[in-house]
Amino acid sequence: MADSFEYPSTDIENPYGVNGLPSLASFYQRSLYKERCYIDNDVRPIDYWYDKKLYGRVDDLQSSIIVKDDYLKQIISSDRQNLFAINFVVDAFEDLVEHLRVAGFLGQISPTNTSLHKITAKRAWISYKGGYQSYIRTLFDVFANGYGKIHDSKILGFKSFSAQYSKFLQNSLTIMPLTRTNYILTTKCSPLTSGLVIEISGINHGDDSAKVKTFIEDINFEFYQKAAKKYGFIIDKNAPWRLTADLFSEAIQEYMYPYGLSKENLFDEAYNYLYKTDLSDLKDFFLTSYNSYVNIRPVAKKRIPRGPRCPGKTKIQKIYRYQQGSSNDIPDKKWIELYFLIRHAEAGYPIGRTGPKLRNIMRIYHSKGMEAALASINRIYRMYIYPVNYSYQPPLLMTEKEKDFTNNTDTKAIRIY
């Protein structure tokens, strides 16, 4: 592929791409690094910026996943306590650390003036939960201080609150997804949540000069690249200190074996599918949000007619709101419909006519239960995770029944009542 620009040698030797540059300068510098600065030495890197953005956060069928805590293991070769990754990733990393240490002792690499001899983990697995809770709190605050405030008189209880919140969400979900399934795929969520990633430096990811000077020009960089591959890791092209387990490599699969894992069963055994808990999360979200709203505004003011003695006159009626203990006032079929339409909005309204799909989901719910209904919804919308999937039909790996869901004809607004 041809370069985007003609790069002078001085620019190649001295990139200065950082976050915050003017748009044209930023485009030039990021193109320079992408096309000319990184040297792969015939070892394929991973590219989280332009290609494999969701690696480790979706399975091979594009369902959102999160690693189970039981499969995390503490990293010993670390500058910090309590750094974790998936068990087989930790084992491979510890062997890589020892391999580089011995290579320096034997004179195969330089033990001095290098960042790539005695490496240690600086960052590894992080939980998405704290960030998600903060995120949905922000979503609630936007509602409470805007749409909810304007339509406060319409909120008389949990059902009417849920109806107003649903209307608000209709206009925000394409840019602020609500479900964990789609939150995990946003830029607010780090690749570190996958448990497959270990970083050996704390360098700013946006500083191209530091990437080149500290890593790419390091005397041991080529050895490090090949050693990483030997132990089943791929180096991140845009952060050469970030090591990601290559699930398709024979090397990493050997480390999986003692734990009863393989590339065929890894996602089913070591990860949770987020769509399975989306509906219970949705109920909790609406209930918690309603109770928070009651704390902020415990009294609703509704204008009502004064009565037959004062025709045409109105008065203000105070209606006291009370905390809600459960979401059971709203039946499951309404929650399923809301969840379906939320996933539809989060995906950018890719399907035209939602009515027939939703009726089919309801038939599945009544005949096979909640789990089957949620799985069917997920099968419809997982195919729209990567933008490339909007450009063709049918999407990847669809069954004949799934193809029946994709006849596009009209949309439906998000409503719970």
Order of helices and strands: HHEEEHHHHHEHHEEHHEHEEHHHH
Portion in helices: 40-55%
Mean pLDDT: 85
Total of helices: 16
Structural class: mainly alpha
Residue share in β-strands: 5-15%
Spans of at least 5 consecutive residues with low confidence: 387-411
Largest sheet: 3 strands, antiparallel
Description:
The chain has three domains: 1-37, no CATH class; 65-126 and 190-264, 2-Layer Sandwich (Muramoyl-pentapeptide Carboxypeptidase, domain 2), CATH 3.30.1380.10; 129-187 and 275-406, no CATH class. 36% of the residues are buried. Helix 13 (332-346) packs parallel to helix 15. It has 417 residues and is mainly alpha-helical. Mean pLDDT is 85; it is low at 387-411. The strands form four sheets. The chain has a three-stranded antiparallel β-sheet. A hairpin with an 8-residue loop joins strand 8 and strand 9 (314-320). It has 16 helices and nine strands.
